[in-house]
Amino acid sequence: MNEREMKENKMGVLPVGRLLLSMSVPIMLSMLVQALYNIVDSVFVSRISENALNAVSLAFPVQNLMIAVAIGTGVGINALLSKSLGEKNYERANLAAVNGVFLGVCSAAAFAVLGLLFSRTFFTVQTDVAEIVEGGAAYVWVCTVCSPGIFIAISFERLLQATGRTVYSMISQMVGAVMNIIFDPIFIFVLGMGVVGAAWATVLGQVVGAALGVYFNATRNPEITVKLRGFRPNRAIISRIYSVGVPSIIMASIGSVMTFGLNKILIGFTTTATAVLGVYFKLQSFVFMPVFGLNNGMVPIVAYNFGARKPERIISTVKLAVVYATAIMAAGLAVFQLLPGTLLGLFEASDYMQEIGTQALRTISFHFLLAGFGIVSSSMFQALGHGVLSLAISLVRQLVVLLPAAWLLSLSGRLELVWWAFPLAELASVTMCVFFHRYVYRREILPISQKAE
Fold this sequence. Notes:
The protein is mainly alpha-helical and 453 residues long. The protein is 85% helix and 0% strand. It is built from 17 helices and no strands. It is globular. The protein starts with a helix and ends with a helix.
């Protein structure tokens, strides 16, 4: 047994409270900066026109789909790598890392092809407003064809997170996001590139984040080694990554389908309603991103201690994560209820957009408190190898309940009722989570506890 094997990773020995915060806070901070970028990006675009804001809002499902594939694959990498480290299987951990990077590159190539072929079609099936179609198609073309940055960045950030080096992951994400914010006004206004300038600012920021991720893994992450020389894809490793990753990808991709469907429903009322939905998604990211960061810190802890057969640490970690997530969501709910007009004012909202948006933000935000529990639960299921349960929750929430509910409520002809689809869907989601918690506990945690006794 070598020295590295004798030294226990901090995820197996540090007090759970301190460990969860040390793992999560750096990621939460970086994701807050990412959320700030999302808002600032749309704020700058809204200065061009409401149609420009609409173009970026309608492009959101495509961007969300890319992020879904990148993060979903990262979840699979993270779960396998952390579990392998918990079992002291360093060879498999290295294989998980290099095959994960390979999958990221393949995903980028696939989106580049799709962007070349279908960017314009994606917009023409949604609207016939020329300014929205032209600006949106160009925006999506740049984001997809130049997508390697985001896939490489997320792949290497997940390698850092899986080994507990979340500070370096935070730095690479934050620097990339800050560069986005700096590039935005330069490309949009100084260079006069408009909506396309926002896309180029995004792509360049992603490239900077990817470069830092590669550098930190090469110089600050000795527990794993990514060797590309002589690399051959490992079918068994890729299968294990995707056994967790594919449900996560599909789960997040469902969000793209849901957003596309909602845009089609809302645009039947007015294009301003789709702009409001786009603004909501930008604003809610400032609430949800810290919770996702908390989850990113929680997943490797749960996976590691599952591999190390330490059930009490798994339970304590999940309980704390639920408490922290609920607190964050409560703060977000308060802001959305008390300051909807101020939030919409950031986006140069017209009086009509203010009227629609105020109702939307207050109604939709009622689901925040329930969402914290649901998000943590889904991530726990993934970390324990039950990604299909997370997929089922997401499928029911967004496609079985939310979209049909929104459509049925739209038949009333009252736009303000459509927004209630969000709280209704979250209620269904939480109900499923409660039942799945009992199943996973009996299937995975209880047997380990009994053996430990």
